[in-house]
Amino acid sequence: MKHAFWHERWSDNRIGFHQSDFNGWLTKYWSSLGLSGEEPVFVPLCGKSRDMLWLREQGHRVTGVELSDLACRDFFAEQGVDIDAIEEGEFHRRERDGICLLAGDVFKTDREALNNPRAIYDRAALIALPPSMRVDYAAHMASLTAVGDQILLVALEYDNPRNEPPFSVKGDEVRDLFAAEFVIEELDSADLNEGRFENQREVVYRLVRR
Ligand SMILES: C[S@@+](CC[C@H](N)C(=O)[O-])C[C@H]1O[C@@H](n2cnc3c(N)ncnc32)[C@H](O)[C@@H]1O
What we know:
The chain has 210 residues and is α/β, with parallel strands linked by helices.
């Protein structure tokens, strides 16, 4: 997936993936990770997701990484905050009240830049990437985590997969991508009868780094 694809989506405001409410899976299952709130959390491909505000409310310091500088700026603007970005290597960094957004390519991040996260929240990140990038993404998530770190992953699956986001990522693929480095537990799933695609389901997983 070319970066230009996403930059165009943001500049044209074609962001149907953005949710105005907190994600229901997040609010229901985050507690199953058994965290205290002290742990830094990383949100890859974060867009301007309000879920970062919810995670912050739980006490976590949050670092989000998002290709679109526009999205990062809008996230803070929608909280009534205008922050100038600071250039930091390959990233534009904005930080306020325990939420830090890095505008740039997630594949250029390392553990330190992400404040040594103990947990990762993936909603619409893995499923935004085409197949070969999903392999790189899973390897990158493994490189960013240490033993015991966790990922709450919300995946989407449907029949007759198409060639653009959101991609269908079924359970077998989640296991192929992550099982070598993570213990995978399927926490829940729901059919989306009103969904755009055939037999559309959301599936939520908890991954624990081996
Ligand atoms: C489907 S959206 C999901 C956004 C967010 N997770 C949410 O739930 O609203 C995927 C996002 O990933 C961003 N993105 C795509 N490739 C990226 C990359 N290599 N590095 C960082 N962000 C990326 C896009 O700009 C887009 O905002």
